[in-house]
Design goal:
The complex is a heterodimer of chains A (432) and B (142).
Chain A: H1 5-8, H2 12-33, H3 35-43, H4 65-70, E1 84-90, E2 98-103, H5 104-120, E3 128-131, H6 139-150, E4 154-157, H7 163-173, E5 177-180, H8 182-194, E6 205-209, H9 215-225, E7 228-235, E8 240-246, E9 253-255, E10 260-265, E11 279-285, E12 296-302, E13 304-305, E14 317-318, E15 323-324, E16 329-331, E17 334-336, H10 338-346, E18 351-362, E19 365-374, H11 383-401, E20 406-410, E21 425-427
Parallel strand pairs in A: 3-4, 3-5, 5-6, 6-7, 18-21, 19-20
Antiparallel strand pairs in A: 1-2, 7-8, 8-9, 9-14, 10-11, 11-12, 12-15, 13-14, 16-17, 18-19
Helix pairs in contact in A: 2-3, 5-6, 7-8, 8-9, 10-11
Chain B: E1 3-11, H1 16-26, E2 31-38, E3 42-49, H2 52-61, E4 65-77, H3 82-92, E5 97-104, E6 109-116, H4 119-128, E7 133-134, H5 136-141
Antiparallel strand pairs in B: 1-3, 1-4, 2-3, 4-6, 4-7, 5-6
Classes of the chains: A alpha/beta (432), B alpha+beta (142).
The structure holds zinc ion.
Zinc ion binds next to loops of chain A.
Chain lengths: 432, 142
């Protein structure tokens, strides 16, 4: 089933023409409504009239997460607050959130894109779907919710945190689909197994996203639950979940290209790469009103394929991610930067600035351990001093990341001090 | 009288305790008493040695974090109930004991190492009550 055959299966020529027309309109729109873009364009002597087709996109400046942060909270909005009907936010490097705003039209487009993804995953109006992403500032819950309602499915807004209730309702309601992070779904499958409920579920499809996952996890989910699992991609800056999704052939994620123009850029020269070459993914929001972004650099490494998929869709497909350009980690769906931990540790007197973050996945849930060295001036002969220090560090890290971490005080000089860029992260999850 | 205690922070990994003891042995630092307080993540090895300053220096050179702190080494009669009597004296004065560990050397006398919230006050109380405290050197020469 294809939700919007006109858009998802249009010829490449038609798509290019549509993208060109939308880009021309977008550039004119941001030039007149977003001071940030007007100044950026003026700085390089670029006028809206210079952009005549989608090929001209390379003339336009890039946008980064820093730009969003520097213009916190509403600086990049193109419409007054009277037009904004929803705000979402995600955490940034310095604790300042990245804030995005949606007009009613933006929410309609979002639901449309998620509807395409749900349909791709075989979910329709006869299905009962549990949305088990967090509801709130995070785009996952409400984003998936809107799309699921649009296709007319019976939506159960579970949110996260209560696995027992989720599994009980999954069985009692006869839920046929679920949307959540892949690691949470694996956890759920274990809960079902331990409660002997695996043969009582009616689940058919899972739409998983918000964190990278491996092919192995994909297979494990499908085998364990006897379902089909689909990868949904999105980021709040661009929209939220639904920017791209994979179909039953799993040959990369179909991008909703009529709304989000994808480019894969050479990581050094930032020039667009040919199909099949790996680089940084960037998006231009072709139709967004609230916070339109031009050539937004996602930091995700991928390659692109414009050939027609076996499913019949002509939309470009991005490959499973091959890594990140920067040091951002995604732990339990939360964006985490090592610099946040560093900043948090400065608040604690008794430790050195050396630290190591060890990320792992235990029983399918991400774990974070932060190792720190005690400052020699504060050595103690009392256990409780070290224990209260451990608690204090755990507290400041929780405050900084919004994520609980296990804190371990280690012996002096045991944390790696490398020359140049220090290594602060050991990610044992092997997600890429 | 106070005695210097040497405390070493040890992560709970195999062989670490033995490495600490190895450093002390190589430098001829004699251990008179010890206690190991441990949690699942780390341990604190508290030592009474004949030369605490040398021990600390050598441990630091070997990359261990160690600390010298004042404790009381208290002499008590080596008989049933004497430890409780000592604690009663301390409790009665409202002093909090942080930790304590014991050693007995002779048949007549026993010794306990004690760290309290206010060690100066403890020393005063012990003197007032005619309870003897000794130094590490005293202990070493027994
Ligand atoms: Zn396809």
């Amino acid at each position: 089933m294809i939700w919007n055959e006109t858009k998802e299966c249009m010829s490449r020529d038609q798509m290019t023409a549509l993208q060109s027309a939308r880009l021309v309109k977008l550039v004119d729109y941001v030039y007149h409504n977003v001071e940030f873009y007007r100044k950026k364009m003026q700085a390089i002597d670029l006028m809206p009239g210079d952009i005549k087709s989608i090929e001209d996109i390379v003339k336009l400046p890039f946008t980064t997460k820093d730009d969003l942060r520097d213009n916190y909270p509403f600086g990049l909005f193109a419409v007054p607050n009277s037009e904004i009907v929803r705000i979402h936010a995600s955490s940034g490097t310095t604790g300042k959130a990245t804030v995005v705003g949606y007009t009613r039209y933006d929410l309609d487009i979002w639901a449309e894109c998620v509807a395409r993804c749900m349909t791709m995953a075989g979910v329709g109006k006869d299905d009962i779907i549990q949305i088990a992403y967090g509801y709130g500032l995070f785009t996952g819950g409400l984003g998936a919710h809107g799309g699921a309602e649009k296709i007319g499915a019976t939506v159960v807004p579970m949110s996260t945190g209560n696995s027992k209730k989720l599994t009980t309702m999954m069985v009692d309601f006869g839920a046929t689909a679920i949307a959540c992070t892949p690691s949470y779904l694996l956890h759920i499958s274990e809960v079902l197994e331990s409660e002997g409920l695996l043969d009582q579920i009616k689940l058919k499809s899972a739409i998983c996203g918000a964190e990278p996952w491996t092919e192995k996890m994909h297979r494990e989910i499908e085998t364990k639950l006897n379902i089909k699992a689909f990868d949904i991609y999105g980021l709040s800056e661009i929209m939220g979940p639904g920017v791209a999704c994979d179909c039953e052939f799993h040959r990369g994620l179909h991008v909703c290209e009529d709304h989000f123009y994808p480019e894969v850029l050479d990581t050094k020269t930032l020039t667009p790469l040919a199909d099949g070459e790996t680089g940084e993914l960037a998006f231009t929001t072709l139709t967004k009103e609230g916070i339109p972004l031009i050539r937004y650099r996602t930091k995700d490494l991928t390659s692109i394929d414009h050939s027609t998929c076996e499913c019949g869709r002509t939309s470009a497909r991005i490959s499973r991610f091959k890594g990140r350009v920067d040091d951002m980690l995604i732990i339990r769906g939360v964006n985490v930067f090592p610099s946040q931990v560093e900043a948090a540790l400065v608040e604690v007197d008794m430790v050195t600035p050396h630290y190591m973050m060890i990320v792992d996945r235990v029983n399918n849930l991400d774990t974070l351990e932060v190792q720190v060295e005690m400052d020699p001036r504060y050595y103690t002969d009392e256990i409780r001093v070290i224990e209260s220090l451990t608690k204090k560090i755990a507290h400041v890290i929780q405050q900084a990341l919004g994520l609980s971490a296990k804190v371990k005080i280690v012996e002096p000089q045991t944390l790696v001090r490398s020359e140049g860029k220090a290594v602060h992260v050991i990610d044992k999850r092997k997600l890429y | 009288m106070f005695a210097k205690q040497l405390t070493v922070f040890i992560e709970n990994r195999s062989g670490r305790l033995s490495e600490v003891l190895g450093v002390l042995k190589q430098n001829n630092v004699n251990i008179l008493s010890l206690s190991l307080a441990d949690t699942t993540e780390f341990g604190l090895l508290r030592l009474i040695v004949d030369n605490a300053a040398l021990g600390k220096e050598k441990l630091t050179e070997s990359g261990f974090s160690s600390l010298l702190s004042n404790v009381s080494i208290i002499q008590i009669p080596h008989k049933v109930g004497s430890l409780q009597e000592l604690l009663k004296v301390i409790d009665d004065n409202g002093i909090n004991i942080e930790y304590m560990y014991g050693l007995s050397i002779e048949s007549e006398e026993a010794y306990v190492v004690l760290k309290a919230s206010d060690i100066a006050k403890v020393d005063e109380i012990l003197t007032d009550n005619g309870i003897k405290t000794i130094s590490c050197d005293d202990l070493a020469s027994l």
